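Dear support,

I submitted the protein below through the web form. The confirmation email said the job was done, but the results page showed an empty box. After a refresh the structure appeared. I'm attaching both so you can tell me whether what I see now is the final result or a partial one.
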Amino acid sequence: MTIGKKGITVRFDEGEVQQLGSLAERHRVSSATILRWALRALADHVERNDGRLVLPLELGREGPAGESPPPPEPAAATRSGSSKAARQPKA
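What the results page shows now:
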């Protein structure tokens, strides 16, 4: 594990695991990176809505003040070798 980072355990059902794996493979990053992006997008959504979790979620859309959310970290910034999907280029 990288210095300064802590692990947590999260349980997903089979469908969620498949969705996570598909997203990771499509973007050629690890599943952990997809989860980090999702957390960052959710936190940005809450911040844009004055600390409230407003449903339905509209992640990646402009906030009420018209500001655009920051883009997720590029795939090149992830650790190489962190997942099978990150090691294999997509055909």
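Response: this is the final, complete result; the empty box was a page-load delay. Confidence is low (pLDDT under 50) at residues 63-69, 76-91.
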